[in-house]
Amino acid sequence: MKKILSALIAVIFAILIWPAQIQAQYETVAEKLPHQKKKITIATQPFYSYVNAVRLDVEKRIKDTPAWVQLGVSGHFLADKNNEKNWIIFPGDEISYLRGAGMELNYKYFFNKQESLYFSGGGSYSHYNIKYFDTYWHSYTIDNLVYHTKQRGKIGQKINKLGINAYFGYQIPKPTFLFDIFVGLGYRHSIRSNDKAEPFNDATISLGYTGVVFITGVRFGVKL
């Protein structure tokens, strides 16, 4: 696991010091294509709806180069369920209430002259406030005697998740419409507030998962 984490960090560091000859090749293009004159993109990732979330990405070109900085902001929302039943958002994660927010910062570099193929790397942070209905042991004392009874009620769990990402992608070289597809690997580390509550770590897409994750997705948006 440490070797995989170290490899991901090394790849992200390598892209930050990309060889100067690639930049020289980019500068030899006699005239830029229309999409290469764009400075900002705004996009969304529809796959986030699968985990009851929305995400907005804003990218800005770094000066007059094929390098970009990307900021992604996401929000997670699941309406409160007060009838002692849980929503099943995917197998292993049964939740009655969810609020959360996330932020991801990536460095993106196009490595061909047409600016369609790229490598991206960066880090992310997410916070989740989760509640769910379950059965638990309740302890109380009467006349110096401790009693334990089973009760059903709402249990809370808060999760802070840190991550790093490294992936390749393809972006259609169009001047206005943005379509982007990408694939890669990442690592997630989750810190939970309640050790006695559900950890929510059954699958790589679970809110409390810790470990290596497979990254894939699509982005739709506009170029400005």
What would your notes on this structure say?
The protein has an 8-stranded antiparallel beta barrel with strand order 1-2-3-6-7-8-9-10. It is elongated. Helix content is 10%, strand content 58%. With 224 residues, the protein is mostly beta strands. It starts with a helix and ends with a strand.
Strand arrangement across the biggest beta sheet:
1-2-3-6-7-8-9-10
Sheet having the most strands: 8 strands, antiparallel, barrel
Shape estimate: elongated
SS-based structural class?
mainly beta
Number of strands: 10
Can you tell me the residue ranges where pLDDT is under 50 for at least 5 consecutive residues?
A: 24-29
Mean pLDDT: 84
Radius of gyration, taken over Cα atoms and rounded to an integer in Å: 22 Å
Instruction: Give the N-to-C terminal Cα separation.
Output: 41 Å
Strand content: over 45%
Estimate percent helicity. 10-25%
State the order of secondary-structure elements, H for helix, E for strand.
Answer: HHEEEEEEEEEE
Oligomer: single chain
Give me the number of helical elements: 2
Question: In a nutshell, what does this entry contain?
Answer:
This protein is mostly beta strands and 224 residues long.
Q: SSE layout and pairings?
A:
Layout: H1 2-16, H2 20-27, E1 40-44, E2 53-61, E3 67-78, E4 87-90, E5 93-95, E6 97-110, E7 117-142, E8 145-171, E9 177-192, E10 211-223
Keywords for this entry:
224 residues; mainly beta; eight-stranded antiparallel barrel; 2 helices; 10% helix
